[in-house]
């Protein structure tokens, strides 16, 4: 049997990350791989909550604690779904949640911590114009990773050039 590979697969619950996971499983996975599903939760949902709309400088400890609890529960539920995905496919590995302001940085950090041999990430398929201004998580990972990166484009979910304006 070949040496164990550490394979990082970025997940966020989207169709794009589901496709990337399935692609990894069907095309790249080898017996004995240690799979690390890396999840970067988006914490800014809490910051943009409607609860803040009329409270510019009001700090309500109870509201903040309730929002943080809700956020922790949501993250925990997401992690359980991802762990079940590993189990359903009979894969050895783990799910890792990484707090990062930028998903690309979090995925690179996790890959380094896990001594990844490869990274698999989905692509949202943003058009060229949008990617130029917004940036792309997959672009960031490709340019900052020290290991091979597979960027999986969903064959039925990509943006056509005429849709980018």
Automatic annotation (TrEMBL):
Q: Which CDD domains match?
A: USP_At3g01520-like (cd23659)
Q: Domain of life of the organism in this record?
A: Eukaryota
Q: Where is the UspA domain?
A: 5-153
Residues in a coiled coil are none
Pfam families membership: Usp
- Name-wise, this protein is UspA domain-containing protein
């Amino acid at each position: 049997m070949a040496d164990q590979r550490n394979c990082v697969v970025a997940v966020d619950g989207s169709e794009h990350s589901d496709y990337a996971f399935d692609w990894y499983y069907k095309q790249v996975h080898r017996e004995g791989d240690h799979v690390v599903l890396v999840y970067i939760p988006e914490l800014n949902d809490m910051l943009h909550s409607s609860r803040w709309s009329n409270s510019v400088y009001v700090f309500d400890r109870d509201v903040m604690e309730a929002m943080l609890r809700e956020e922790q529960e949501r993250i925990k539920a997401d992690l359980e779904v991802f762990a079940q995905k590993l189990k359903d496919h009979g894969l050895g590995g783990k799910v890792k949640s990484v707090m990062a302001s930028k998903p690309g940085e979090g995925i690179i950090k996790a890959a380094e911590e896990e001594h990844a041999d490869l990274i698999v990430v989905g692509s949202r398929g943003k058009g060229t114009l949008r990617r130029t201004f917004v940036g792309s998580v997959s672009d960031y990972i490709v340019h900052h990773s020290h290991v091979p990166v597979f960027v999986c484009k969903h064959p039925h979910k990509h943006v056509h050039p005429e849709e980018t304006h």
